[in-house]
Each structure stands twice: as C-alpha cells, then as structure tokens.
C-alpha cells in the first residue's frame, strides 16, 4: 500500500502540472479555445468531528495509537499540501461539540469557511470562531489549521449538515449556522451577507463544570488556550477572574470562574453567498463520516443507538418519539426537552418541502433508508442536488455532485451502504480504514475533480460542405465529434442530392423516368447544422449524433473485420503475416505498446511490457495485454462488449472509387489510424489498413484519458490515380492497369504510402516513403510531417535522344514541428521539410529532390530554410506533356520557383539533367523587412494564373499567410497577396531580387483614383502586385486561393465573431470565431461583386467579403460547372445551350458568385454566360480524365 500511496500523490501532481502546461499546436485548438476548463471547480468538505472520532485506529500502519481525529488531522493536512491548484475549496463540519443545556443542537453547524481559491491568501477574518492565521497564510494551509483545532465530541447529524451545505451552495438564508459569528456553530461571516446581531443576552458564569464557552475549549475546563483574537479579558480579580469583552473568550491560565455573555435572541436575516459564479463551473460536496447518521439517544427508553430519531430538519421532536416512557416522572423532562428543542430550531422550510416532488415522501411514508430514520431524506437531497439547476441566473444546469468517504466503518456495513447511497458521482463512494487509505480517498476524489474541471461541453458544429464528397446524386459527409479525451468519434454518412442541389435523406422520392432524386427528408437547417430527424442512407435516424448511423453503425463484428497492417516484408496486406490479430507472430508487444518512459517495469510500464524489455514477448501478462489492445482496436472493449467506433475525419477527405459493374468503394482515412474501404451500397466496411507506425496509439485510445493534445492517425489527403496503361478507357488487370491510392499521414507521422487497390479486396503496398531510423537514403531523413498532397504529373527522364515520359507524384517534404513554438526567439531552426520531392508513381523511385540534386544533400547550402507543408503547383509551360516549372511556398513567408528545364538551354545533349534546375526566390514576405524573422507563414501552395489582356500575358501568384497550427494566434499581421511574375516564359535573370512587402501596393489605399473594376494593371510598368490587410484581429488565410475570370477567391479564419468582436470576459462563453469568403479583383484587390446580395452594404453595393461560417476552418472555394441547359432551364437545343458556372464556399446556402450577383447584368462582377474553358489555366497542368481529384 505504501507504493500505491506515493503513486497516487505522483499522479495527482502530474495532473495538476499538466493542466497548466498544455500547449496546443494544431488547428484543433479552435475546439479547445474556450476557457471553461480553466474555471476552478467548487469543493466543500463536510467532515465528521463527532465523539466516535475519539476512538483509536488500531489498523493505523504509521501509529496504531492515533485516534480517528488525529488521523483525520494528519491526512487532511497531507491532502491540502498536495491538492491541485485549480480548485476552490471550503470547509464545513458537524459535531465537535457536546450536549450543553442551552445549545443542545450545536452539533449541527453552519459553513466554517467559504469556498475560496486554494492558493489564495486568507482575507481578514474579523470576529469569528476560527484560529487566527498568520499574515500571508493561504487557504490550503488554513483549512488544515482549522481541522487541526477540532476536538471530537457530539453526534452525527449528516442530513441536517447536508441541508445546510445545500443552502450555502444555493445562496439561501442561513439556518443551523444562524448565530453571532463567535459562537462555535455559527456560519462564518465571510459566507453570508446581512450579519445577524444579538437582540437580548444575559451574563453566564463560566466554571470548569460548564465548559461550553467555545468549541476550542475542552469540555469541563476553562484552561485551554485558543488563538482567537476575539478573546480579550477585562480582569476584575487577583485570581484572574473577570469578564469577556465580547461573545467569546479563552482562558490562558487556570481560572475557576469568569463571566461570559450569552446571547438569548439573535435577529437578522443572513443569506449565504453562493460560490457558484459561472455556468460551466463544477460543484462538489465531499462528505466524510466515521459513523451512521445518529442523534442523542436514551438507553432508559431502550435505545441502542440514535438512529430511530428523525433529523430535526425533517421533523420536529414529539412526545411519541420517546414512547414508551420508562417512568411517569420522565414525562415532564421530555416535555421540556421537546419545547426547548422546537423553539430553538431556526425558521426554514422542512427539508421535504425544500425538495418538493423530489422528496418522494422521504419524511413520511417512504421506507427509512437502510432502516435509519436518522438518515431520512439524505439520498433524496443529494440526488436532487445533482439533478437540479441551482442558479437560475446562469445558463445551463448548475448541479452539485456528492462524493462520500466511509472512514473506519468496517464493522458498520449498513452505515457504509448508507454513505454509498448518498454519493451521486459515478464511483464516488470511498472507504478507508487507516491514515493511508483516508488520504488516498481524499486525493482520489480531488484527482477526479481536477480532471473533470478540464472538461467542457462540445458545442454544435456546422458541417462544412466543402468537405462533402459528391458522386453523381450521392453525397458523403465525414463527421467528427470533439472530445476532451484521447479518442474522438467519427463517421461517414451517406445522403442524396436533389436535382436542385439540396442534401436530403431517407425517404427519397425519385423521378420515375430519370431516376434522379427529386426530394427527401431534410438533413440540415439553414445554418448547416444537422437536424435531429436526419436519416442517412446507411443507418437509422441519427440526427447530429456522430456515433449513430452511417458507416460506423455498419462495422462488422470485431472478429469478422478484415484489418491489416504492414508489419512484415510481404507487400500483400491480406497475407496472414500482416493481419491485425493477436495471433499474428509478426505483432510483438513492442509493435503495439507505447514506451512512455524508456525504463522497463517502471513508471508507466509497471508490468515490464515496454519495448525496451527483451523479455516482454515471453511474459504471459504482456501477451495478454497485447491481445487486449488488438481486440480493442478491432472493436471489442476490455469487458467483452462491442463498440462501433470510427475515428474522426479532420483534414482528410473521403474518396469514391468506381470499379465498374455497379461496384463502388468509398475510402475514408481517420485519426484512429485506419484507412477504411467501405461498400457504398450498404456502408459496410470491407477492409481497413493501419500503418504500423500508428499501432502504439492503440494503448492511448484504450486508456482514453483526458487530454487536449489530439491524437492523429491518417490525417492527410487522398489522391487516386487510375493508371490506364494502354489508354483504352478501362482499368483492367490483364492490361497491367492499376488503381493506386496515394496518401500522407499529415500530423500522424512522416510517411507517404502508395496502395495498389486495383483489386477491391486485395490491397497491396506498392511503395512507402518514410523518415525512419532504418531508412538512410540521404533524402528521406529530411521528410517532415507529410502534409503535402501528392500531385500527379509526368516527367521526362533521360537524354535528348532517349527519354521516357514517367508518371510521377510531386510533394513538399512536409511540416517541421519546430514551427509549433509561437515565440520566434524560442524556436529552433527547421531541419525537416525543406525539400521538394518527385517520386515515380509506380516504383517509388525518387527521381528528383531539391536538396539532393541541387545542393548535394548539404542542408546548410540549401537556401530554403523553412519547411514546405503545402502542395506543389506543377506547370507545363511549353505544353509538351511534361512538367517544366514548380511553384511553392514555405512556412517562413517565402515564395519559390523552380525552372526544371534549364538544361534545355545549354549546348550538351543531356537535355533532362534536372541537377541543373534553377531555384529562384520570388518573394520574401515573412515580415515587413525590419528583422527578417519568419513572422508570416505560408502553409498552402500558390495559385497560378495566366491572364491575357491587351495583347500581353500576365502571370499572377496568389496566396495568403496564416498560422495553420495556431489558428487563434493574434500576434501576426497576416495578409493576402497577389504577385506578378514578370518572367512568364523565361527564366528569372541572374541576380533576381525577391519581392518584399515594400514593393507591393496596399490594395485598400494604393489604388485611389483607379477604376475599381479595372481588368488591366496600372500603367506603371514597375507594378509588382498588391497585398490586402485584414480588418479583424488574428484574421488569417488557412486554405488555397482560387483564381477565376480575373477574380481571386479565398477564405479566412479569425478568432472574432461576425461583427469582429473578440472573446467575452465570461470564461464559460465559447470564444467566437468566424470564417469569411473574399472575392477581389485580381489586379487591384478591389471588391467586384455584391456578395451578400444587399445593395445597401459594401462599397457601391460591392462587398470585399461575406461571413461564411463559424467554428470551422473553411477549405478553398469550389468552382461548380452546372449541367448545360437551354435559356429556359430545359434541355439544350441547337442554338440554345449554355453551361453556367457558380462558385461556392463553405455552408453558404447561396453561391458566393453566380449569374445573379453580377454588376447589373454585365457579367463583370459575378459569373455570367458561357465559359470558354480553354481560356482558364487548369489548377493542374496535366489533365487525365481517369484521375479523380
């Protein structure tokens, strides 16, 4: 037990530290942005100080002569010393007082000390009944000092004390603590307003036999010492006798008698000050008792204990409570006792009236709980406290949960059971029989409360229609639900799209001729939020419930799932040696067990099963653990129950593969670590693949502890390549055709995979590129987190006379987590991701690497000093079917260009020597030029457009800066840029100087007098582009731009609301954030369209932006080419056929641009008329109609 004791203390400290040191570093910080986790919970200790606490704890391992009260004092001090700092704590107790003639009920008390921040300094106390704290004493120490001053005496009025505690939490009038503050049972004056005063009083002689002057005085003596400053003597005799100056006193010497003023009648209406301040604040009662509920009893009446008497809060005493009378002469005594008791009870509603319907007749006809009349209404009270809102002024429900500790009740199982009945928190009833267990119980409770304080309710998030996958009239929506624990739930749900573009669910109505969907049950409201009645095509009505319906509901039973990993040399994932099963010998414990501390059998690996232990695989407990982990990820909980679980789909996007003959699969990657292959017909998973590098996450998911660090799996985008070798339009295995799926892990790791999925149920790893210790090729050791989407292209490999056009994928080398550190001066230089790689799509051979082929793998010579997480824009400028130019940006705010075909211009015959490619920095925009640090960051590829105007060709480069891994950052002045590349067809000249911010025009101020619809650049031939400063604090660009018809469209994210207002001071209010969609003139940055379709807003009715979403980071705008139609909307006929275009962003119900919001029908502002697609440069230079983007 000793080791366990110390471990609990260590865990408690760890939790406390983790709550103040968590640093988020990815886009999920927008879901953890609210401060509700910082609101300290309220904890009121209600502690037993009754006479039974005098008993010795014979099982005390530290000192078998200590009494229960001594054990309590020592344990409580230890608990206070080590308690987490994110708590508000207060104190209340009962008993600690004998049965006096005047104040017999004084075992029931008011709140001793108000709930206060545990590390706050104790404020001035004034007149009270507590020991005096030294200057600077903090609450955690003072509460321990208060407990240390207690003496055990009195009975066990549990229900009355809980009633008083309830009144304190709710801000009701003081009942049992209603008295002048120096009296021992009085509530502390800091806990209430409207202090009571003494209306009438009388002097009382104090002698040894009375002993009821102060709770700090041992009964029967006036010789105890107290530290209460209220005790000031007025001496009148040589023996030290005299009178008290006020209502309390302490004898510092042996005094036989003195005078003390007794207050006969108190007046006033003190009202407790509720400690509940915030709507998201958790509230707890922690009750410790060493006995059953009990009141004074009379053996002469046959009483064996005091459990047959009702709590006075429930029912006043009556003569019937003392029947049968042992002798007639007792009648007068009990008549007087009843009269005295009932007249002294403070005026307050009886407890059953206080509870209302929740009382369930607890004070009358209901059975006594556990047979104790003395415990009546206790369970009903704590359940009512937990289930009821106790502050109408705050949003939501402010409940109060109860924990209980049964101390030294081993011989009282019924009493223990009663205390368990009072606990409302799950696993909230504790038992303790010695000092170690008592401290452990208190610590476990505070540990649980501390963890709960970092939790907060998940708001409703609107779906981002940019992330939907539409395939014919089918729509697949990936979903996720944020959690405060490691495992986030996800799903993919299937809906339909009507002919007029609405998303609908079952039941569907189809056109009897075309079979197109005409209507169905609505799925989302006008805000893009799921309706509770939403019914997807794969599962039952599930509404906004992420875990219900969809593909998750159709997962096979755990033992029947086809789950694979890549732990063997066999590339066939369906081979037995790649099965994700406990029976697979290729899955040692090291492959699935996370090594947390590097020490076998210590810390987080107490059973010696960590990978560093060479004996781990031979230990039966390790095998059991491995099988349990694998069973868990297959969908079986440790208790054997089945869980239908898919991980969250955050940045990846599902992709449909049409295999022909009616067979379709949707591939969905999740942060649980699986790539799922799902039948689009019934939503059933056919197989799933988890990269071996993600297997150690299983333990984290199974433990599912509270965390604000999101766990990532496969979070990167998917790219499908339909490789039609003989170009016959069909993908046939016999023709050596293939379907290949490329993906990176993004935050999940440093690897790219190419899976051959030609056969729908026989996936094969075609190749893998990863930065791993056992991979040493001089290139991949610079591969960072694989964010960049592999871009399909063709590349000529060979010489002038003998070259081959090879299929390749191009990607940036990823993100370096060094950039997670927001303070530039504290950040280490990037060592990962400073490369661009071109990889053979079929073989995985690295044909070209910027760092390897231009700088001989010498990182110091590489001028690219910052990581490249964005995609690479690939160009074929001479239109010969092969790439010849690359554009990319980096996280240092730079824009780069690579001219791949420089070798074509020299005299040798080796035309395709890409070692001679030319790297040029086009722009250096990280700062305004004052210090050269990388303040602005580019996470996405630049959008390139060729524009012909007035006989001249212009090339624009459009992109925006934004800290994607810290979207709430407000320290950077982010901007959107449109740059002019003056060397449209030629290489930049030697000595080309990169553009900086000073070279560019401020779009808001620099074009004064220029027509804001101008489609040509200003006359100044030195014009190099423009930038746009955002109006809202922290606004940034977190997605690629789209250039279309001389307009540039982009989205932003800002930690402000739609009106630009920042967070509320209320920590329970979720901080606002909003997404905006901009449409600006490509050459001037001016507004060009009526985006909100309100002529009264913007400049001359034109708007720079429109608010397009909340609580989401929008993707890039989408260009939608609608079906060709005649002018009247019908089928095309000769001479009457037009294909209209619209641009959509986020969840906006209306397109951001279409034919209806142009400039008075001219087509200048919006999108009107037919579009000649040959005039629009595609986003990818190379078009293969068999490629699904």
From TrEMBL:
Pfam family, one: T4P_PilY1
Keywords: Calcium, Fimbrium, Fimbrium biogenesis, Metal-binding, Signal
Coiled coil: none
GO molecular function, one term: metal ion binding
Top-level taxon: Bacteria
Compartment list: Fimbrium
Stretches for region Disordered: 590-619
PilY1 beta-propeller domain location: 664-915
Signal peptide region: 1-25
Comp. bias intervals (Low complexity): 602-615
A Gene Ontology term for the protein's cellular component: pilus
Family of the protein in this entry: Belongs to the PilY1 family.
Protein name as annotated: PilC/PilY family type IV pilus protein
Organism: Candidatus Thiothrix putei
